[in-house]
Specification:
globular; two-stranded antiparallel sheet; RidA family protein; 30% helix; 154 residues; five-stranded mixed β-sheet; 60s Ribosomal Protein L30, Chain: A; alpha+beta; 3 helices
Length: 154
């Protein structure tokens, strides 16, 4: 068991099977030592959670939980990209979080912290990353949050 798998177990996180793409794309692409994940949504146990807008249907705290769920799905994609060995992740380079908020919602960074915090919990200093937190008028399947990642791997 990898060190990262042990950390996930300590946190009570069981990674899902990486979600299959629903359109003409793949879940991740590796080029050189970088892995780019497709945007991951709030999918849990095969069902979409957190459908709606932050600031109307969900609080900032709920949004952070939604972003954390997206990050769990990112880690599942990275595990697939690393042939099952998450210890091959050298660094989470960047996260981009999209927040489906009301027109006046301005706390996107607090929402995306749910994903950022999890990356640091799981990967330690290697989980510290650059980031963008962007407001969106809508997102696919009306999810509240979508997050994508770039990671450096061995």
């Amino acid at each position: 068991m990898s060190q990262i798998d042990k950390k996930l177990a300590e946190l009570g996180i069981t990674l899902p099977t990486p979600a299959k793409p629903v359109a003409n794309y793949v879940g991740w692409v590796r080029t050189g030592n970088l892995v780019y994940t497709a945007g991951q949504v709030t999918l849990k146990d095969g069902k979409i959670e957190y459908q709606g807008k932050i600031g109307k249907d969900f609080s900032v705290e709920d949004g952070a939980k939604a972003a954390r769920l997206c990050a769990i799905n990112i880690i599942a994609q990275l595990k697939d990209a690393c042939g099952g060995d998450l210890d091959r992740v050298k660094r989470i380079v960047k996260l981009v979080g999209f927040v489906n908020g009301t027109p006046d919602f301005a706390d996107q960074p607090k929402v995306v912290n749910g994903a950022s915090d999890l990356m640091v919990e799981v990967f330690g200093d290697k989980g510290k990353h650059a980031r963008s937190a962007v407001g969106a008028g809508s997102l696919p399947l009306n999810v509240a949050v979508e997050v994508e990642a770039i990671a450096e791997v061995e």
